Request: fold
Amino acid sequence: MSRLTVVFLLAAASALAHVGSPDVYYDGQAGPYRLLVTIRTPSVIPGVAEIEVRSAANDVETVHIVPTPLLSEKSRSNGEATFAPVPDLAQRSKDDPQFFTGSLWMMTSGSWQVHVTAEGPQGKGELSVPVPALSSSTKKMQGPIGLVLAALGLLLLVGAVSIVGAGVREGQLEPGLAPDPARVRRARWVMAATAVFVLAMAALGGLWWNSEAGDYDKHIYKPLLMSATLDNGGRLILHLTDPGWARWRKVDDLVPDHNHLMHLYVISLPEMDKVWHLHPDRVDAGVFAKDLPPMPGGRYALYGDIVHADGLPETLVTEISLPEVPGKPLEGDDATGTGPPISKADPNSTVAQLADGSRMIWEREPGPLHAKRAMFFRFRLEDADGKPAHDMELYMGMPGHAAFVRTDRSVFAHVHPSGSVPMAALGLTQNAGDGGAAMAGMSGMAGMAGMDHSGMMQALPPEISFPYGFPKPGDYRIYVQAKRGGKVETGIFDARVEK
Amino acid sequence: MATISTSFSPAPRVPWYVWCAVLGVTSAMIGGQWDISWHRSIGRDTFWTPAHIAIYLCGVLAGLACGYLILATTFGNLSQLRGTAVKMWGFEAPLGAFIAAWGGLAMLASAPFDDWWHSAYGLDVKILSPPHVLLILGNLAVNTGTLILILGMMNRARAEFRNKLEWLFLYIGGVVLVGLMLMIMEFSWHSLMHNGIYYRVVCMVVPLVLAGVARASEKRWAATTVAAVYWLFWAGMGWILPLFPAEPKLGPVYHQVTQFVPPEFPMLLFIPALALDLLWSRTRDWNLWKKSAVSGLVFLAALIAVQWPFSSFLQLPEARNWFFHTNIFDYNARRAWMHYTFFKPDAPTTFLLEMCMAAAAAMVTVRLGFAWGDWMRRVRR
Reply:
């Protein structure tokens, strides 16, 4: 069968685990205490991560934090083990006793976890938050520091030449004697030679600096590349290739997250008014395929979320132009939704009208939204007559899924009620035996109250909340998905975010 | 030569600014070892760790002492030193003061550079990075400046005062050697001592100092004394540091650490140095090139004869005690590193090539050391 290959473009890969959204948000239960943990990852590794912990109630007295590498099941079974360093005591805010902050060093690139221990009158509680530690950039020297160091460097270079000159001219003179003209001349020649030497050394130093900077550049995270094609049968084929970054990162060591190896968001361009949440199957090492549902012809952005065996999540990005696809009906956990075109976006609207007349409402707090602020995004589902939805179900084990996408597509984050960490990585922290925590934390997640530990279903509340913080100002589109009455509903909202 | 007024006669006591500079270089020497141990046992640091303060104190003390010396000689109450001063940019002071002040400035300039480097490329923990090399260069300049400050006085002094200054000079020679040995630490682990690169790197550094200082000194056992200063300091740090508790403050922690990790047991450099002192005492009339060639070979042969078997001993259970402390590992030492084995041996041709380069390096550095020593003997200011 000949393949109809369509044009695909590789999008700029400025991604971390999500795209352009490196901070980690996690809402979980540390024993009796409910905590919202924000981890602001460093842009260079080794580097310092800033940790913020907010307790839901004023019942936490101390918070200790400690980072450890997150190992894959295979590494652990091979006997590779690490010990925890001494935990740090997070500082309690004087103004807000429920807010604790600290800094932690992330020494190597890869998958880490931050272990949080909270203590208070109800005893001790623990949770672990998986964190991808990845270098995203190196800096160029600019501004006042550049000027100051350049001035000092110049002073040192000229000083070195002058000192050598003084030494040759007078250093070996008996006390009281003045240098004769021959000695002065000799000093000048030596100074000239020294100047050439120090300039050569400075140039060599510059080359060394560039070479070191080049080495660091090689450590900057490069996500796996994803290319997309469509075969004649309307099947989307995704090829994952390694652009070369870290030898330990593999194309084919993926673990399921909510039962799927890949969660693929397909968003129509340029209006971003149609979204599909699909789950391609692995057909070969680094190759995924999915029968597409009916889709109009046009350009689409593709975001593929995957998780490696060591818990490292990646979002792979590409674009594809499709002809009209007759397609096959959606199946399993696949879902789709439609909203207003982005050109008609209303960032003040808090209501998404759903197909059957029901509504999804964003319970947004009054006032502007600000970047870099951890907050809960709460949504409520109502049926057609305005009553709270009574038939909520888990969608892939979660009360809801949300994708935050900046309209210029420089940001994409797939968030759950537990936060921005993938459940597969959270599972690894639990298996590491130092969280017990992780799953206990999940049971306390917002909106999870209806799920007991045995997995037996009780009625879920009609509200879902997602902890997240916009990474930078701008216009965003939020795709919120929840399941009720056996059907996945998708609400699309817009947000304008200020500094 | 024209004569200008002179009223200088050496003071019978070592001036305070010399002691201040000596204190500074000693502080940096201790701080350097302490800082490396800090990185191997605690891991995390800030600019304000005690070890960093000890290092930068060198720059501050050298800056203060030499700044005072420069200003007081030029404008103030040390104007009697002008006859023994050199002139630079309108200032007058002993040559060593300018060199040490330059070193202090370089050390202080390295601090913001290092801080920026960490923010740009990550918190590196390696010894040889551009800002660290600037720091080490600055420290070496302070050491050299102090050496020359002492030399100027020593070469003008007589009898007992000269004797006192000679010992101070040899001590600073030992400090210079310690600084250089810190710089090559990444190439001188005892597990590398059956590989050619170790011998090549040591030969590129050590003979320069031994030959230079011995040539400038009148002491018969000058090279041995310098090597002994290195050994005593290094071994002393190895015995003292583990007495203090420490625990890792960053991961990954592959090995539990409960005390400061000591530096590796020092090389027995006093034996090759003794061989050189004996050789030089019997070859005073030799041509310097011939003497350098023979000295280089003697140094390398003695180094191999001592360190090859000694490093084998350090791999044995008998060395796993408080004295040789080969039983203490870094917090980030993986199990594979703790097997008391040597690095993969060189291929025979590689080893031979490395040894030839080591011999050549030793000959060249001895000759350079002689030239440096001859120059130092003539320093008067």
Notes: Residues 145-219 of chain A form one domain. Residues 404 and 478 of chain A are 5 Å apart (CA to CA).
